[in-house]
Amino acid sequence: MDIKIRKASPLKIKTSCMVIGVCEKSFSKPLLKELDQKLGGLVRKAQRSGEFSAKVDEQVLFQPAGHLPAERVLLVGLGPAEEITAEKVRRAAGQAIQLVAEKKFGQMALALPDSIKGNLFATLVEAAAEGLLLASYRYDQFLDEKIKALRKLPKTVALVIDAEEDQKSSEAAVAKAQMLCQAVFLTRDLVNTPGNIKSPDFLAEQARAAADKSTLTCKVLGKQELAREGCGALLGVAQGSAREPRLIILQHNGGRKGQAPVALVGKGVTFDSGGISLKPAEKMDEMKMDMGGGAAVIGTMLAASLLALPVNLVGIIPAAENMPSATAYRPGDILTSLSGQTIEVLNTDAEGRLILADALTYAKRYQPKLVIDLATLTGACIIALGHHATAVLGNDQELVQSLLNAGEKSGERLWQLPLWDDYDQLIKSNVADVKNTGGRPAGTITAAAFLKKFASDFRWAHLDIAGTAWRDKDRPYIPKGGTGVGVRLLIEFLHDLAAAE
Question: Mapping DSSP to helix (H, G, I), strand (E, B) and coil, where does residue 92 land?
Fold first, then answer.
C-alpha cells in the first residue's frame, strides 16, 4: 500500500471514503460546518444524539448522496484537541483502514484536524501513516486466494494537508513511517512463521537477507564455533533438538568511527516445548512466538539501517529450539556458561534466560555503551501486566527512564518493576553459582535478577515482552498474532539517544 501526500480541501476530494479526524468540541470549525451543511445537518444530529461526539475510538459513517465528490465520509474521534497524541492518531487511522478494507471501499483519503500546525503536524502525519500501514498487515502466506480476497486494501491512500509549507515535512514523515513499518512487518512475519519452517538456521538466513538488502553486516556462529567459544548455556538448551543452535550477530555502523555501540540482545527460541519440563498442550502452538525478542532485534537493526540512524549498533540473537528428547538437558543438570559462571537447571522451561546469559556475555567484547535485551521471558509478566505493557527492569535508572519515555511516544508502553538485591537470594544455588529459577513468587523479577548476573559490566535494561509480543485478538492497528513489539520502541529510543549526543 502506497501513501501519498495531497494538498486539497477534504471536501473536494473524489474518493470512495474520505476519513476526517475530529477533536471534541470542534463542530463549529469551518470544515465541519461546511460538511454539516452539505449533509443536511447530519453531523450536528449525530453530535446531539450522542452517536458521535469525537471521543477517542468513536466513528460515524455518512453517505453524501452526490453532495460531495467523496462517496462516503467517515468521521473518527481523537478526543480533546489539547490532549491529542500520536498514539490516538495511530489508533484512529488503523481503525479507519480496517473498516475500509472490510467493506471493500477500494479507495481512501485521510485528513487530520486543520487546527494542528508545525512540528506536531509532521509527528501526527507520521503516526497516521504508521496506523494505516500497521493495520493493513496480515500474515496470509498460507491462506487460499479466495480467503485473501475477502479483505480488500486500497492500493493508495491520500493523506490530505491544507498548507503548502507542510508538504515537505509530511512527505519525509510518511517515508520514515514506511521504512519503519517495513521492519515491523519483517518482525511480525518472523514471529508468525510456523515452527516446522522456523529453525535457528532459518532465523539466521532471515538475518542475512536483511543484511543483504541494507547496509548491515551479518555473522553467524554455528554449533562447533559455539562449543569453541564455551557457550555452554546456549548449547545446553539446544541439545534436545535435532536442529542446531546459532548465534546471530548483526552490525550497523552509523555513528562515529570508534564510538561505543549500543548492543541489542534478543531471545531466539524458535519453538519452546518446555523441554523435559514439558508445557501443557493448551496454547503450546503459540510457542512459535518465543523468538519475539530476537525478531525485534533483527527488525530494529533493519530499521536503523534503512533510516540511516547516526549510531553504532550491534544486534545479538541466540537461537535455539527447546525440545524433549533422549539428548535433552534435564532438571538437576549444571551448565557452565560463556562467562564461566555455573548454572543449576531446576526447570528446563526457564530456558530463555540461559541462552540470553551467553549472549549478554558475548556482547561484552564489543565494549558497548549500554545493552538492552528483549525476551518473551516469563508467564509471570502476563499475570502482572496483562497484554498492555512490557516490563522493564535494569541496573541503570537513567536508561530505564529513557526507555519509559520512548514507550510513551511510540505507543509501546513499558512499566518498571523493581530489581532490588533482595531478589538475588531467590536464585542462590547450593551446588552452582546460580539457579535458573526462583520459583513462582516474583517470577519476572527473579528472571531479570538471573540476567543481572551476566550484565554487571555495563549499563543494562531488560524488556520482558511475554505479554506484548503476541495477540490473540485484533487491536486498532495490531492484528492477531505477532505484534512486532519492540521495533518502534527501540527506534524511538535510539533517535532520542542520537539527538542527545
Answer: helix
| Burial degree of 387 (CB within 10 A; 0-12, 13-18, 19+) | middle
Residue 165 has pLDDT above 80, yes or no: no
Judged against a pLDDT cut of 90, whether residue 150 lies above it is answered with: no
Find the angle CA(491)-CA(497)-CA(498) to the nearest 5 degrees. Answer: 90
For CA atoms 425, 431, 433, 438, the dihedral sign is negative
Q: Judge whether 353 counts as a catalytic residue.
A: yes
| Sheet containing strand 2-7, strands side by side | 2-7, 156-161, 108-111, 18-22, 73-77, 59-62
Distances (CA, A) of 382 to 104, 322, 470: 36, 21, 11
Strands 414-416, 390-394: pairing kind: parallel
pLDDT at 162 over 90: no
**Nearest residue to 10 (alpha-carbon basis) of 25, 33, 27, 31:** 31
Q: Is 453 a catalytic residue?
A: no
Let me know: does 262 contact 372? Beta carbons within 8 Å. yes
- Length of the chain equals 501
Confidence of residue 152 (pLDDT cuts 50, 70, 90): confident
Q: Is the dihedral of CA 40, 44, 48, 51 positive or negative?
A: positive
- C-alpha cell of residue 198: 522456523
Query: In 305-347, which ranges are E strands?
Result: 312-322, 334-336, 342-344
Phi, psi of 165, rounded to the nearest 5 degrees: -70, -15
From the list 44, 151, 223, 279, the catalytic residue is: 279
Amino acid at 473: K
Cell 495531497 locates to 6
**Rounded Cα gap, residues 471 and 341, in angstroms:** 36
CA–CA gap between residue 132 and residue 98 (Å, rounded): 9
- Rounded to the nearest 5 degrees, what angle is found at the Cα of 364, between the Cα atoms of 248 and 186? 30
The residue among 357, 334, 344 whose CA lies nearest residue 437 is: 344
Phi, psi torsion values for 483, nearest 5 degrees: -90, -20
> Measured between alpha carbons, how far is 351 from 79 in angstroms, rounded to an integer?
44
CA angle at 178 for the pair 106 and 18, rounded to the nearest 5°: 30
Query: Residue 323 has what pLDDT?
Result: 98
- pLDDT 10s digits, 312-349: 999 999 999 999 999 999 999 999 999 999 999 999 99
380-415 pLDDT, tens per residue? 999 999 999 999 999 999 999 999 999 999 999 999
Contact status, residue 381 vs residue 467, Cβ threshold 8 Å = yes
Catalytic option among 246, 353, 435, 452: 353
Q: How many whole angstroms from its chain centre is CA 246? A: 23
